[in-house]
Design brief:
The chain is of the alpha/beta class and 329 residues long. The protein is 50% helix and 7% strand. Strand 4, helix 10 and strand 5 form a beta-alpha-beta unit.
């Protein structure tokens, strides 16, 4: 199976053999790894003034960087992040170039959320006051945002290049969700459910991402029926063993390797975090290897390569069965 085929199989809940897929939400160490600027740090002040040949070179460069990253680190997929200057035509042409140079070896994933997440500090008070004072207007806004996203999804479906949407509105702090479970079910759950059902109806796979302590809203998240849930954040007290027991037979789990330890912990702590995630995520299938957020700026490339080395050696179902058998003797 290609990395894309195995990734999609696990998202769909189908059994696989061999090594489990590897996914990262994003990979920001492109300068350290390849000497190339990450798309989020690129600004094209004169994008519209460039000739089409110049724009083509830029679009193809980002497509090449995406595939280079996937191949170098044995990823099945990550978000294809593009500069804010680009419109849908630019995105379409760049994803078409990905398919041209890569075939269908890897999956192409895009941002796709629109549900209410934690607002910025500047907007937080205004946001909660609107929820309290004008609840119906906020629900109408949430519905309009879903409608627009699904209209976009219909346009992107026609391209034939996109496999997956990653829904990246964050709902939780490390201690608890920003909204109470009751308010979450009023202002987020119905719209998240519509969004996911719409994407699934169009034939896309859906990964729901949120950091922090999701346990108080775990059942609500599961009820929206994503193919997968990311990031199972141990910094938020999320134990993959508990999540696996509660929803792991219905929804694919992605993540739980502690990002904070990758930056500030010891090698031994990092290795223990990887093995804990594999031990509790892999049994019964429906687990994809990943950190608990992304490979972000400030993390060392060597630490990321350390967890990949363990994944390559130990994230095989055959290897896992041998470890379980040996421990039970």
């Amino acid at each position: 199976m290609t990395p894309r085929e195995k990734f999609i199989a696990v998202l769909a809940g189908k059994p696989i053999s061999g090594r489990i897929p590897h996914f990262e939400l994003e990979f920001f160490l492109t300068m350290e790894a390849f000497g190339r600027v990450h798309p989020s740090q690129r600004r094209y002040a004169q994008w519209k003034q460039m000739s089409e040949s110049e724009r083509t070179l830029h679009r193809e460069d980002l497509a090449d960087l995406y595939i280079t990253t996937l191949r170098q680190f044995n990823l099945s997929s990550m978000i294809f992040n593009t500069p804010k200057d680009w419109d849908e035509e630019d995105l379409q042409k760049s994803t078409e170039h990905i398919r041209k140079i890569d075939g269908a070896e890897h999956a192409i994933s895009l941002h796709g959320d629109c549900t209410f997440g934690i607002p910025s500090g500047d907007d937080m008070m205004d946001f909660v006051m609107e929820l309290a004072d004008h609840p119906q207007q906020m629900k109408d806004l949430a519905q309009a945002r879903v409608d627009r996203r699904l209209q976009r999804g219909e346009r992107l479906k026609k391209w034939g290049t996109i496999d997956c949407f990653c829904l990246c509105s964050d709902y939780c702090f490390n201690t608890n969700p920003f909204l109470s479970p009751a308010m979450f079910d009023e202002f987020v759950t119905p719209y998240l459910k519509q969004l996911i059902a719409g994407y699934r109806g169009l034939g896309f796979y859906v990964i729901k991402h949120t950091d922090g302590n999701i346990i108080p809203i775990l059942d609500s998240l599961a009820s929206t029926n994503p193919h997968a849930l990311h990031s199972l954040d141990p910094q938020g007290g999320v134990d993959i063993a508990e999540v696996k027991k509660r929803i792991g037979d219905k929804i694919t789990l992605i993540g739980n390797v502690n990002c904070a330890l990758l930056q500030t912990g010891t090698d031994e702590e990092v290795i223990a975090s990887v093995r804990y995630a594999l031990k509790h995520g892999m049994p019964g299938g429906r687990y994809i290897f990943s950190t608990s957020n992304c490979i972000y700026t400030g993390m060392t490339l060597e630490r990321y390569e350390l967890i990949l080395d363990i994944w390559k050696k130990e994230a095989h179902y055959e290897t896992q069965r041998k470890r379980v058998t040996s421990h039970s003797l």
